[in-house]
Task: structure prediction
Amino acid sequence: MIIEVNDIEELADGSVVCELYMDKEAKRWLIERGFNSLMSEALKKDPEWWTEEDEKRVDVIGQNGPTGEHYE
Result:
C-alpha cells in the first residue's frame, strides 16, 4: 500500500493544502475505513434501525480482499 503526501502548503488559518498520491490498495483501505467510521457514528446516533444481521456483515467487511461484484 502506498500513500505519499506531496506539495504541503500551510495556510494562514493553520489549515494545510497538500497533494496525495496513493495506489488502488490505499484508496480501497481509506474508503473502507471512512465508511466504517461513518456507519459507527450513525449507530451511536440512532441504533434502532441496526439489526444483528447488519452487525454480522460489518464484521466481515474487507476480510476477503478486493473481491465482489462491481469492485474496481
User: Anything to note?
Assistant: The first helix runs from residue 24 to 45. Helices lie at 24-45, 52-60. The longest strand covers residues 3-10.
